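Standup notes, protein team

Yesterday: finished cleaning the Planomonospora parontospora set.
Today: Serine/threonine protein kinase structure.
Blockers: none.

Input for Serine/threonine protein kinase:
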Amino acid sequence: MSTSSAIEPGTKLAERFRLEDRVHESNGATLWKAIDEVLARPVAVHTFDPDFPRLNEVVSAARTASRLTDPRLTQVFDATEDDGCSYVVSEWVTGDNLADLVAAGPMEPERAAALVAEVAEALAHAHEAGVPHLCLTPEHLVWTAGGTVKLLGLGVDAVLADAVHDNMRVEDAARGDAEGLGRLLYAGLTGHWPGEEAPGGLPVAPMDNGHYCTPRQVTAGVPGYLDTIVCRALLPESKRGQTPLASPAEVAEALSSVPRPAPMPMPAPPPAPPVTASRSEGLDTAASPQRHTPPPPPPYRPVQQPHPSGGGGALGKVAVGLVVLLVMAAVGLGAWTLGRSIGNAGDAPEAGGSSSPTPTTGTTATREVKPGSAQGFDPLGDGDERSELASLALDGKPSTDWHSESYPSADFGRLKKGVGLLIDLKESVAVKEVTADFGPVSGGTVELRVGDSKDLDDLGAVAKASGLGGKETLTAKSPKKGRYILLWFTEGPSYQGKYRAQVNEVKIRAVK
């Protein structure tokens, strides 16, 4: 068996799990979408480099998590550690995470509270078995395609993020997850993240006198009792005299009266929009020309029971008779109206008269350009910047990405003035705009450069964006013709405590 560092798509583990797509990799751990060929279903697989420093801990945490039976927790199917290859196989989850659900604004307060209440109950069960999460972010809370709540990454993500330690006290872990649940509820109620680095492209919560504003200060209409629950879990300084919520079980108890999500019978919906991917377990994704607004979870209301009726048969016959009379009257009125219209046809204006459509104002017509290939661009360094990942920014899957090396500072460790992703369009076109998904980064600056040469000096800057995170559209004031486009990062965005450039997906439009 080959080592994790040499594993490529198509590799089969345990003669069963065939790796298909590399979703994410970081610090010696790689997340794959794979196929369980025995059960013919997709699964998520973590593989680890042979020198991964906490291999024993991550496999042990996965095995412990596999014994939990709460359906709201991601299932772990297999966890193996051996000299050839170590891996963890878990459930592949499809749906919209919390960041997606608040992309267009805060959720309905009761809905947000219901989702977090489900997660709090599941996490309380996990704590009873000695398994904390400690990495709760909007990407870990998913409203699945099947209309249920799922918590991703239990056990495994805490080890990968080095968030759990041997000397950590049980009460400290419980308090940490209670605060995490408070952050999730805060995000659902306000659309902001109460933390220094906002995951999932969410804006950072506003501050007041050195403290985060309460949900009611950020968003109108938040019920007072939910504002109090958030403060007790996360912002005790804002509710002096209130007992803090110090464990997931206490958060679950505080939210126990909130109506729970239940899928309601609905008419046949239009085709479902694409969904985004979690960094913990993989999510099915599809290409999208713009950021979609996912449908909210179904409304929370009790199911109406049929009302008993007496003498319904006679009343029904009378109702049917009335309907027949109304239909006959409508048909007669329609026939009269049609005849009158035909009789007045001679008075209608001729073609080309004043009733012709008013011409619209002219706009620049554009077309989407399919890129041919891409490469990591590092002309001021060794010439290459993770080019082996460059195709992942063009594969139509927002869950995969090209990213640069990680640097200790936003100025790339003072080693160079920038790095970038260079895309070859295979033809010279007049580039108008580029929409790029920069993923769950924060900050940074990128320039859109266009030209007919791969030389940095020949690629002219036509647009610029700062404060990156999620999708950004860079639009040229005047279309610039060129075969190559370069997303040139002059300041590295922040990602998981370091700095790196990242591009999950790119859409290019040129003048027709």
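Follow-up from PR in the comments: Residues 312-343 form the longest helix (32 residues).
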